Amino acid sequence: MIPAFDLSEELSNLQGEIHSALGSVLRSGHFINGPSVKALERELADYLGCSHAIGVNSGTDALVLALRALGVGEGDEVITTPFTFFATAEAVDLVEATPVFVDIDPVTLNIDSALVERAISPRTKAIIPVHLFGYPANMTSISAVAKAHGLHIVEDAAQAFGAQWNEKKVGTMGDVGTFSFYPTKNLGAYGDGGLVVTNDASLAEKVRVLKDHGASRKYFHEFIGCNSRLDEIQAAILRIKLPHVDSWNDKRRAAAARYSEALSNLKGIECPTEAAGAKHVYHQYTVRIQNGQRDAVRMRLNEMGVGSTVYYPTPLHLLPVYRANHVRLPRAEKAASEVLSLPIWPGIKPETQVRVAEALKCALSS
Ligand SMILES: Cc1ncc(COP(=O)(O)O)c(C=O)c1O
């Protein structure tokens, strides 16, 4: 069986370094708020080209903390995409604001920046663009709309570590950017982890305080915060992986180019593209299977030993928690019925991809 994702090669290449880093953390007896997190935060800020990086417990917490630091809360609306992982909207509800879903661009699958302006109301406080599957959202037009209407931007870059829009790393163009270090992400920990980045010193300080029980110093609690600290073990692992992330992203890009070359002339399938200014890091290589064939194609692939995944089968506005609002967003709904993510990871072998492509040709024609 060809899996949809495989960490085994990465693990075997890095295991010596990882074991010795884990040994150092264990021997140090310093597990929380220690030197590995501090060093990682500096290295991540340097890599991304921003002033402040704050390690937190998950990408979900990163979003919640970003919204809280910006003062988004009860009675506010936040515009976002319906075609993303649930956590994007869940974070908005967790701060007691309301997500307002805007339909997607059918080509990039990201929020359609041309539709954002129409969704703005007097209660709108922020926009959360998501760089879905590693493909940067159009930050030029989203920033222009936000500026014209005095709105905050929180970039959900959970799936797009290292992706760029006009040479800038995603996550660094809004007021705040958030990342997830979930193990399958382009930069993944071996457990949960997340990151908040910003160029605003006071927002950074607010996030630092909120993620540590609202205390600016020990036992001096100024706010109701939470416990959302990145731990030393995950930070030590991430420090080993960070120097490899560019080459891993290049390998993902090369793998994506091989798929596109093999598949783009086939009937009934649409391959991902890359707009001018966008550097896609292919967290997923997601095709669209047309003519209502997606589920049948996926089943045939499975029978031929090829794993694939549907991200996401239901757009957020149609999930039980949101569907009472009776919103219809036809492009997101169509995408949810057509998308299929093919096996991709940095070390995927070209011959494995040939097998995937052959199986897909066969599945499409049968
Ligand atoms: C777009 C998006 N936002 C937020 C998250 C939440 O990240 P985490 O799982 O680290 O909480 C994810 C995780 O899959 C995601 O894909």
Describe the structure.
By secondary structure, the chain is α/β, with parallel strands linked by helices. It starts with 7 loop residues before the first helix and ends with a helix. The strands form four sheets. A seven-stranded mixed sheet has the order 1-9-8-5-4-2-3, sandwiched between helices. It has two domains: about 10-245, 3-Layer(aba) Sandwich (Aspartate Aminotransferase, domain 2); about 245-365, Aspartate Aminotransferase, domain 1 (Alpha-Beta Complex), CATH 3.90.1150.10. It contains twelve helices and 15 strands. The structure holds pyridoxal-5'-phosphate.
First-last Cα distance: 20 Å
How many structural domains can be distinguished in the coordinates? Answer: 2
CATH superfamily of the largest domain: Type I PLP-dependent aspartate aminotransferase-like (Major domain)
Distinct ligands: pyridoxal-5'-phosphate
Please give the number of β-strands: 15
Identify the CATH class of the largest domain.
Alpha Beta
CATH topology-level fold name of the largest domain: Aspartate Aminotransferase, domain 2
User: What portion of residues is helical?
Assistant: 25-40%
Question: In percent, how much strand structure appears in the residues?
Answer: 15-25%
CATH architecture descriptor name of the largest domain: 3-Layer(aba) Sandwich
Kindly name the structural category. alpha/beta
Please report the number of helical segments: 12
Name the poorly predicted regions: none
| Mean of pLDDT | 97
Shape descriptor reads: globular
> Any idea what the radius of gyration is?
21 Å
Strand order of the largest sheet: 1-9-8-5-4-2-3
